[in-house]
Amino acid sequence: MNPTPLRRQYADPAIPPVRRRELWAWAGFDFANSGYTTVVITAIFNAYFVGVVAGGAPWATFAWTVALSVSYLLVMASAPILGLYADAHARKKRLLIVSTVACAAGTAALWLVGPGEVPLALALVVLTNTAFGIGENLIAAFLPELAEEEGMGRLSGYGWGLGYVGAVLLLGACLWWVQGAAGRGSDTGTAVRETLLLTGATVLLAALPTFLLVRERVRAAPVAFAALWQASLARWRGMLGGASDLLQLRRFLACLVAYQAGVGTVIAIAAIYTQQALGFSTAESIQLILVVNVTAALGAIAFGHLQDRLGHRATLSLSLWGWLLAIGLLAVSEARPVVWAAANLAGICMGASQSAGRALVGAFCPRGREAEVFGLWGIAVKASMVLGPLAYGAISWASGGRHTLALLATALFFLAGLVLLARVDVAQGRREAGLQGAR
Asked: Which of 146, 180, 218, 263 qualifies as a FRET site for 26, CA 20 to 30 Å off?
């Protein structure tokens, strides 16, 4: 990584300088936590839940999306108070450690889930995905402290790219373990459960560099809990009622809710769609998602550089058009070459859209309000994760399992995102944040 202008420069000698290893440690957290989403939410446990734990029941996909929605609602409810508390008490790192340990331990506990144990499975998914979401908000809040605005796109892209690399390595190990089940005298279901032990351990171990190297630079200015609680309620009223001192940020968060609903849907139902709608085996599904994570890593890194040149908004718009093309290809053909092409295009756009969205929020973030603003970002992301997967699950259930119809409905979220993105004035948003320039 180029030290300038990527690393943020501080004139105050009391604030420790940003070291290069700290940037890698920050980006490496995505390496750690992406393993959780890939194995549990996207590639392995979601399909195992629908096909084995719930026995392929018609309501299984809907139950899965409801559990995810509950976890996202919990993250949304806690985001304002946790963000304000972390800013006031300089506790982002401590809260990040607690949430990561909870996610890792709960993931390992999914090893206990067998056929018919639906309540236990759903409870652990709610726990782990809530902890993951809280940690995602907290690690993102470090971004403006570590990078200059001109380098946020690159650093965010490096993070997403490393995240997909971690997902590929872990998913590859899981695929090897599942495919070797028969040779060990085991079965696929047992092998799937054992991959969850591996995933929990990987999340915790890979996060250790972040815990050890990333430093808290916000100075603590403790505030009584009662005052923080009232402030968090005010933030909720501001988000829900439309009042905000950061108008362009608010507009972009509305855009993010729309397009991220589509992204979140694809993440939540990828393995379910390939196995239930396209007839993929467990191994084939894992192989496809494994390759898609490679293209997603490339997309995140390549578009991270592109957005620092082309601009965050233009780069994001390009990725949303790519999403629409990918969904169109999947809807018109079930031929394996077309499916692979569409899935990899979606992978590129997934890395690009997520990286660009996080960087644009960073560009709209006033100094000293990082945890607060990225807490609102977390609310928007989690609101989308409630809206998108739940809509998909409801449509597929109501239509008697017509997954293609539910996927086509998902395209509407990306269209809405494009429309709302056109209303975002990046230059004005930077002025509202007390910054200058337009990207």
From this structure: 263
